[in-house]
Specification:
- The structure is a single chain.
- By secondary structure, the chain is α/β, with parallel strands linked by helices.
- The protein has a domain of 162 residues: Class I glutamine amidotransferase (GATase) domain (Rossmann fold), CATH 3.40.50.880.
- The protein is 24% helix and 28% strand.
- It is built from 8 helices and 9 strands.
- The chain has a 9-stranded mixed sheet with strand order 2-1-3-4-9-8-7-5-6.
- It is globular and about 70 Å long.
- The two termini are 32 Å apart.
Length: 258
Amino acid sequence: MSIRVTVWGENVHEQTSKVVQEVYPMGMHNCIADALNEDPEIQARTATLQEPEHGLTEEVLQQTDVLTWWGHAAHSKVEDQIVDRVQAQVLEGMGLLVLHSGHYSKIFRRLLGTTCSLIWREAGEMERVWVCNPGHPIAQGLGRYFEVPQTEMYGEPFQVPTPHEMIFSSWYQGGEVFRSGLTYLRGNGKIFYFSPGHETYPIYHQPEIQLVLKNAVKWACPVPGLWLDNYTRKATPPVEDIQERGPKLHEPGSEGLR
């Protein structure tokens, strides 16, 4: 069975900037989805900010194994109820890939519990992405490093919690360094933050970037059976015989999150 991916894109710069339109005439979200769909194990579709419920309805999220998130200019326009919905799905096992300026999205800050701020410079300089954890599934198929010819600099300090794993670390021509590939675990969900992906450069067309995203989707895909609704949403029968005492607030078979 294919891994079901929803590629979420803010889709604002593509409509307002001629430079971005030239680099991504079909939008960054479609570029990413097309690359993912080259892998026979992945089935990707897109959703954007402008759609009803931002394209992230309950039905869509329930049919999503991994969600990728790119945002920049319109973080504040993402409705809080949609953030709540995405957060709940991640905690129950949906994978989340947060890309580039998505570090400042509501969902990423919510899940990490910090400002997720950083330093930056838009100068089109070269970025060398070093592979810190070559044995990790996300790094498979890469060498010791790869280079992004032109990018936006993201630098330390990066105000995020200590990650579960650091997969990539970047060096920029201007001298800064940055933890550019980090993993987190929240509830039963796996989260991967990957910083390369500035909208005015063809970064998502780059083979190494596309390989990282494909690998990350496979890593973040939920493992079946870890969280079962029958166990987490309903009263659980005892393993041993017990004598029940006290009043009951819930009818037998009723559901309610604890």
